[in-house]
Amino acid sequence: MTRYVAIGDSFTEGLGDTMPDGTQRGWADLVAAGLASSGKQTIQYANLAIRGRLLEQIVTDQLDAALSLDPKPTLLSLNGGGNDMMRPGSDMSGLVTLTERALRRCADVGVHVLLLSGADPSERLPFGGMMRRRGEMLTESTRPFADRFDLTFVDVFHDREIRRAAYWSPDRLHLNAAGHRRVAGLVLTALGHSTEAHAIDPGPDEPRKVLAEARFYREHVLPWVNRRLRGHSSGDARTGKYLDWVSIDAA
Fold it and tell me: What is the pTM of this model?
């Protein structure tokens, strides 16, 4: 039986893919459902990801919890580093080292890893140039781990389709439902399932009006800056949404 556990930050938690009841779904939930449907079987699924988490927290606290699940996972997805990259003086080589240690731990206990580079939000962010340079560095530095650890690597960072505004939430930092659906398709394809990555109608170019830009800074950028100044995180006091195995049935 497939037992899939996801660890990470808001990208893996599913922030931006909001259900009618206010819960967050996201690409990892969609992948779990896709694995169950493709295999025509019930699978076990856990999601320990928490928004705002730094990579060190992901590959220590979350990875410890993931590898302690009983029974042991057969598949673990890992993505992280996005929150680190937004901070001044981010140690990119340190992020690569943390990733390598996590992958070695999983290899040592026989858990197959699905390693993702996150989607690139940089085109529409005020600090976009820095984010793209750091994201490029992290992606290219971790890509060789696919052969070294015999893992599945999914390069979402270089998927040009998902960079379009229509795949992103109003905060321009998190994917929306269409974006999460596209990531799920990329992941399932990489895992060998015949699933076409979701693409939406191109539509008109997004207007960049002064009032819209002012609203973006007021509603999203300034609150983020204020949290950083106070030493707070959007994930403070939160836990992962599925801390133990839940059954996902084939649709």
Answer: 0.87
